[in-house]
Structure formats: structure tokens, C-alpha cells
Amino acid sequence: MQSDPFDLILSVYDSDQNEMLHYQLEKQKDITDIPEPAQAASIPEDIQSVEELFLTGQHLEQYRHATYNPVDYYLEALRRDPHDARCNNAMGALLLRNGKIAESIPYFRTAITRLTERNPNPYDGEAYYNLGLALQLSGNWKLPMSLFTRQPGMLPGRMQVILGLHR
After folding, report:
1. CA-to-CA separations, 79 to 72, 73, 122, in angstroms, rounded
2. Closest CA to 57 of 84, 17, 37, 34
3. What is the pLDDT of residues 49-73, one digit of tens each?
4. Fold of 48-162
5. Phi then psi for 20, rounded to 5 degrees?
6. For residue 127, how far is the Cα from the chain centroid?
7. Domain limits of the chain?
8. Please, are residues 44 and 78 in contact by the beta-carbon 8 Å criterion?
9. pLDDT category, 154, cuts 50, 70, 90?
């Protein structure tokens, strides 16, 4: 007589007949909705919009893609729109993380210029934070704190706590 392993139950009881352990093999659910395989990124020149270039660069950075370089996508976006705040900030941040502090600063300044064209208090203050950090790392200790504290509400939440500005 052969039994189906999915019908078997293993139970362990204590001396008072209280069940202490219960195990039954579960049947796998049918996988019917298999997602499409990931598509390789298009070359930067073939991507239609600056937004798509930014998002592709961001994706490549996030997943540390071995065969595509996010710099190519950010630079193509900046070739099309030299003042794009997102791509300038992303390019500056990438340079800053790679120790190219002096090279990162103009990108942050360009991003801030675009962000403040119509609004002196932009919603996103990441470029201010990154510029302050780059200036601090380059030895300028006076100006950066004014960048960090200029608009505390614009800073990433963890930075507000680190600087004690969350009160």
C-alpha cells in the first residue's frame, strides 16, 4: 500500500496529550503567472527621454550592473538637458561616492540652481545636503552647516537626527 506524502501528518504530544508539534507537507501552488524576464537596458542614445535615462542610470547604480555604466546614462541626459536637477544630483553623488569631491561640486550647484529657479525652498533638499557634504569633505567647514541647516525640513530624515535638527 502506497500513501501520498501530502496526506501524512507528524504530530508530537507531551505526557498530558497536548500537541507540541504538528507538521504536514504542503502542496506547491501552481505558478501560472510567471513574470517576463528582465530586459537589457537600451544604449543611452536609443532612450527617448531624460527621465528614462535618469531612471535607467538609477537602476544600474542600485543593482550594480556589471556591463552597463550609469555614468553613460546620466551624461547623455545632461547632454540633452544640461540643467536637469535629478541627473546633476545623481552624477554629483556618484562622483562623490567615488572620491571625486571637486568634480562633484559643480553638479550639485547646477542641480540647486534648477531646483530654485521658481521655488526658493524646493521640496527635495538632497542636492543641498550633497553639496554641503562635498564642501565639508573638501575642507570647507563654515559653509556646509549653513547648507545643512538652511532648510532642515528638506533634509533626509536621518540627517536631521544626526545633526540634531529634528526637535
Report:
1. 10, 10, 24
2. 84
3. 999 999 999 999 998 888 899 999 9
4. 1.25.40
5. -100, -30
6. 14
7. 48-162
8. no
9. low
